[in-house]
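ok trying this again, last paste got cut off
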Amino acid sequence: MRDRRGARRVRGPRDRRAGVRARDRRRGRPVRRRGPLRLDRGVRARARRLARRRVARAVDAASAWVAAGGAEGYRRRADDRGAADGQDAADGRPGTATPEEVAARLRGRGGTVVATGGCFDILHAGHVATLEAAARLGDHLVVLLNGDASVRRLKGPDRPVVTQADRARVLAALDCVSEVVVFDEDDPRAALDRLRPDVWAKGGDYTEDTLPEAEVVRRHGGRVVVLPFVAGRSTTSILERSGQYAPPAPSPTTAKETTA
């Protein structure tokens, strides 16, 4: 058999199929086309056995899930884990443990304890950037959260917009946050004196010398890290743009709160 150039060419499977179709046409027979891939009997049997095993495993898993209580059982186990982590299993809200309890629990796990703090009234990109940067400084991140009374004294009678229980729950839901501790003082010095973290990280227009809580952290052997903040991101600016909030005149205490 020769190709178009006249060179001799070895016949292959495609040529044989073409020859068979041409012969069928000459003899007036129906032209046989190449059908779909056909598996041999052994391959089909193995595929059926594999499918049956997968179905059986799925049924067993679903049965075990139902026997364990289904969705309600999952919620009970989540509540039990929350209780083990210092959360109130009755209402599922974090932030109820004392600084001493949080410190003991995290020290028992080993690693570096990092703490940061703020009001976190309306969580925004500046908050998230600060929390993620703080979490990278150690193994466990504790957020010291200003309580409602503290925020009201610092920010004005119209704040906070979000209650401390909801703010604590939102913060605890972040992967980078290990624990949340709520304090009612105007600054976190008392909470830091009880928590005694290895690192105190603060975002905003600060220096280590201007942070009032820096001396408390260093007294217990910790170090202070000032984190860069995301410009133009703050709860106050969000509320101002909404047109539903008139901020009070800034006080010396709040003038540098850029992301709270």
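PB: full thing came through this time. The beta strands are 113-118, 140-146, 179-183, 199-203, 223-227.
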